[in-house]
Amino acid sequence: MRETPQDLEELQALLDASLARSTSHLRSIINTARTLNAEQLTQVLTGMCTLALSTVTAKGEPRISGVDGHFLRGKWYFGTAPDAAKARHLAARPAVSAAHMRGEDLGVFTHGKVEILNPRNGEQARDWPDVLAYLKDFYGDDPFDWDNDVVYYRLHPHWMTVYAPDIAKLTVPSQP
Questions:
Q1: I want to staple 80 with a disulfide (CB 3.0 to 4.6 A). Which of 56, 57, 84, 118 is the partner?
Q2: By its UniProt entry, which InterPro entries does this protein fall under (predicted)?
Q3: 39 near 8, Cβ under 8 Å?
């Protein structure tokens, strides 16, 4: 777990506020008995989690694609090729929705805005070297140039909710 106590506090506040302002229909499905708290969520979302990422075209048409998602410090991180359609969409319209689902056992649904961590011709995010070190450690030696062949994003959520009807079914890695 890479989260600080402040990260967990902020994530818990987001989860609580998101559920509280959700529709009664959603709250009939996701409630305190069928969700995870911030600490449980960070223990379950380790390594690479496939995300269904939704962007919007210039014509206002939705597009969905899969990305390697990494949940770090209460936020999703993901990358794509700089010339990918989603990169163009995100440059013009940074609002996104993302979902990570594991069958009927887990659903993490997020809405927010992205920031580019390593823009080609701009200033990198202050923590990009730390994120890059995490990614290189996770993926190992890779033949591509991380700063030119891939653009990475951080999704700043303004709404996030978690459906987990039975925490016992979720694999939570043991702590060292």
A1: 84
A2: Split_barrel_FMN-bd
A3: yes
